[in-house]
UniProtKB/TrEMBL annotation:
<dbReference type="InterPro" id="IPR016163">
    <property type="entry name" value="Ald_DH_C"/>
</dbReference>
<keyword id="KW-0560">Oxidoreductase</keyword>
<dbReference type="Pfam" id="PF00171">
    <property type="entry name" value="Aldedh"/>
</dbReference>
<dbReference type="InterPro" id="IPR044638">
    <property type="entry name" value="ALDH7A1-like"/>
</dbReference>
<comment type="subunit">
    <text>Homotetramer.</text>
</comment>
<feature type="active site">
    <location>
        <position position="268"/>
    </location>
</feature>
<protein>
    <recommendedName>
        <fullName>aldehyde dehydrogenase (NAD(+))</fullName>
        <ecNumber>1.2.1.3</ecNumber>
    </recommendedName>
</protein>
<dbReference type="InterPro" id="IPR016162">
    <property type="entry name" value="Ald_DH_N"/>
</dbReference>
<dbReference type="InterPro" id="IPR029510">
    <property type="entry name" value="Ald_DH_CS_GLU"/>
</dbReference>
<keyword id="KW-0520">NAD</keyword>
<feature type="domain" description="Aldehyde dehydrogenase">
    <location>
        <begin position="38"/>
        <end position="496"/>
    </location>
</feature>
<comment type="similarity">
    <text>Belongs to the aldehyde dehydrogenase family.</text>
</comment>
<dbReference type="InterPro" id="IPR015590">
    <property type="entry name" value="Aldehyde_DH_dom"/>
</dbReference>
<dbReference type="InterPro" id="IPR016161">
    <property type="entry name" value="Ald_DH/histidinol_DH"/>
</dbReference>
Length: 515
């Protein structure tokens, strides 16, 4: 199968030279030959797209030193001017939306529409961060002492380490980086080793913006490597904040390493997201929400819908519509816009999918749409699987586990209390949704006694959050918030300032200390 994009033309337009390691701002000179390289394979057609050089041991320190030097300059640039740099980055992304979106789609395997959508998220966060650069507000407080003024201000942290996952290989980086930059930080990005090329493309785009503005490239550093590199970043006391996206297993390890040095972390880890479909739901809205949530990005979003909790009165009717919709799904090359579902990221992911299906069956799950690995010429990469649906009991161990694949678990409930209990009965707490036109049900779901997730939606699905809100979740999802609202505060340090403009020294709490 051939891809629908001319990859070498994309490389040329984006000035990407695979195998040449000089794209990293780590100023790594020389040729990739002889160095450890990371090979990027497309799950679309199994082709080796390119190899990029991994960062070698010595170069790591050089990168951090360069980032630290850039910080000394960048922190003194007024925030709105930093916002102007980010605005220009957003403009460049608009120009490259087609190419970058197609490259995301080809390297990661998501649909072309979702590849474009991912770049749109980057553009949106640049717009948001540009506005934010004039709104890094602190409070002023009333002092209890005469002739005193109290206020707080927010200062940048320094070097921010960003560890991102393969499934949103560029958008998640941009949520972190755009906010971190306007806050006055510099970033060191370790992308997933499964998607190294799109990271190179972003770095190329940004490097041009920095050069045009006479700014040091160290404001944005790219370090390519595997898990040991991530651990090194997490353990590095020169890196003030680590923002990590990925599995709960990875997050626990990063959290422990960062906490051991009392560093800061933002963790955006696994989800096990459910939609409650009540008997008052508009099923014409519920159906596409459930199907897109479960099969979009081949079930590889943190926010993918993994569980449907359906009221018993409408259970059979909804199940029937769901099965019918699944039978119409077209699985194939994600660059072909007539397909709904592309491949999983690699064969390990396929093995996890198969393993979860087997575990579900062993626990008593009944598949109403069977899963399978697809074969034949169109599926030559070996990464294409059929999205499947199992009827389960909410307490199965597999149902409480996040499997990054299009496996949907459906279950019945009778009362709202029961539905909310089931929704909350998993270790993860990222996204959740209710489908109902009944205001009592909706408000109960959103109340303190309702969903325990970081995201709770009414009459939309669990995935596809806008960048304007704070993104993240509770429990094993890690508790961090990225992107919009006031998530920026995690990228800055708060300083409380008290100024005495009187000729006395009154002490707080009325303490007397006479000399
Ligand atoms: C992720 O899967 O890590 O809400 C991020 C969504 C997207 C982001 C998902 N905006 O589905």
């Amino acid at each position: 199968m051939t891809s629908a994009i001319d990859i070498s033309a994309v490389f040329e337009r984006m000035a990407i030279k695979p195998i040449n390691p000089a794209w990293s701002t780590g100023r790594i000179e020389g040729d990739a030959a002889g160095e450890v390289a990371i090979t990027s394979f497309s799950p679309v057609d199994g082709q080796e797209i390119a190899a990029v050089a991994a960062l070698d041991e010595g170069a790591y320190d050089e990168v951090i030193t360069q980032a630290q030097a850039a910080f000394l300059q960048w922190r003194n640039v007024p925030a709105p001017e930093r916002g102007e740099m980010v605005r220009q980055f957003g403009e460049e992304l608009r120009r490259h939306k087609q190419d970058l979106g197609a490259l995301v789609s080809y390297e990661m395997g998501k649909s072309l529409q979702e590849g474009f959508g991912e770049v749109q998220e980057m553009i949106d966060i640049c717009d948001f961060a540009t506005g934010l650069s004039r709104q890094l507000y602190g409070f002023t407080m009333q002092s209890e002492r005469p002739g005193h003024r109290m206020y707080e201000q927010w200062h940048p942290l320094g070097v921010v380490g960003i560890i991102s996952a393969f499934n949103f290989p560029v958008a998640v980086w941009s949520w972190n980086a755009a906010i971190a930059w306007v806050c006055g930080n510099v970033c060191v990005w370790k992308p997933s080793e499964k998607t190294p090329l799109v990271a190179v493309a972003c770095q190329r785009i940004l490097a041009r913006v920095l050069a045009r503005n006479g700014l040091p490239e160290g404001i944005s550093c790219l370090v390519q490597g595997g898990q040991p590199l991530g651990e090194r970043l997490a353990g590095d006391h020169r890196v003030a904040l680590i923002s990590a996206t990925g599995s709960t297993r990875m997050g626990k390890s990063v959290a422990a390493t960062v906490a051991a040095r009392l560093g800061k972390s933002i963790l955006e880890l696994g989800g096990n997201n459910a939609i409650i479909i009540t008997k008052y739901a508009d099923l014409d809205v519920a159906l596409p929400a459930a199907v897109f949530g479960a099969v979009g990005t081949a079930g590889q979003r943190c926010t993918s819908t993994r569980r449907l909790i359906i009221h018993e009165d409408i259970y059979e009717a909804f199940k029937e519509r769901l099965v019918k919709a699944y039978r119409q799904l077209r699985i194939g090359n994600p660059l072909d816009e007539s397909n709904h579902v592309g491949p999983l990221i690699d064969k390990d992911a396929v093995a996890n999918y198969m393993g979860a299906i087997a575990r579900c069956k062993a626990e008593g799950g009944r598949f109403i749409i069977e899963g399978e690995v697809l074969s034949g010429q169109a599926y030559g990469s070996g990464c294409y699987v059929r999205p499947c649906i199992a009827e389960v009991s909410a307490d199965y161990a597999i149902v409480k586990t996040e499997t990054f694949a299009p496996i949907l678990y459906v279950m019945k409930y009778r009362t709202m209390d029961e539905a909310i209990h089931i929704q909350n009965s998993v270790p993860q707490g990222l996204s959740s949704a209710i489908m109902t036109l009944n205001i009592r049900e909706a408000e109960q779901f959103l109340s303190a006694a309702g969903s325990d997730c970081g995201i709770a939606n009414v009459n939309i699905g669990t995935s596809g959050a806008e960048i304007g809100g704070a993104f993240g979740g509770e429990k094993e999802t890690g508790g961090g918030r990225e992107s919009g609202s006031d998530a920026w505060k995690a990228y800055m340090r708060r300083q409380t300032n008290t100024i005495n403009y009187s000729d006395k020294l009154p002490l707080a709490q009325g303490i007397k200390f006479d000399l």
